[in-house]
Amino acid sequence: MPPSDLTDALTDVVTRLEAVGVDYMLTGSAAGFFCGLSRSTGDLDIVLDLAHEQVAPLVEVFDGDYYIEPDAVFDAVEHASMFNVIPMRWGLKTDFIVLCNEPFDLTVFGRRHQAKWHGAPIWVIRPADLVLSKLRWARESFSGQQLADIRAIMATGLVSEDDDFRGWIEQLRLHDILDASRTTRYDA
User: Fold this and answer.
1) I need a surface site. Which of 47, 132, 166, 170 has the fewest CB within 10 A?
2) Contacting residues for 124 by C-beta, under 8 A, at least 6 apart
3) What pLDDT is attached to residue 146?
C-alpha cells in the first residue's frame, strides 16, 4: 500500500535518502512534532548535505514514484537553494533545502540529533535551532503561523534561552521577531 499520511510519507522519503547515502535533517513543521507542536502540515521540509556526485543517485531513487526535475536538483546544489519532489499518487510534497555554507546553517546541521520515528532513527533539527530557523522564516514571510509555532515550541520548555541561543538571536538580529512571537494572537 502506498504511503498516505505523514508517518508513511516521511518514512518513505527518509528511507530513500538513506539508501543513497545523503545526509539530511528534518526541519519545518514536521520537525515541530518532535517538539510538541501538533498541527497538520502540507509538506515536508528537509535539509540535505548534497554533493554534485550524489545528484544522479538521488534523482534515480525518487524517479518513478515522485516527480523530480534533475535540472532543478543540479541548480539547487550549485546555488545552495531548494528543490522539491512531488509524489505521483500519494503522500506529501517534500521541499529539499540544500545546505549552504553559512555559519548558522552549518552549525545547526552539525548538531542535529537522532530521534525515533515509529521505531526507526531519523535525523531532526534541535528544538532551539528550529525556533531560530522559524524566527528567520517569520522575519522574511511575516507569517503569523510561524510566530504561533515559535510560541508553542517555547512553551514546551524544550528550549533554553542560554548563551548560545541568545548569541544567535543577537548575531542573526532576531530580537524584534522573537518579541513578536511572544505576543502573537495567532494560535498554532
Assistant:
1) 170
2) 25, 26, 27, 31, 34, 112, 113, 114, 115
3) 85
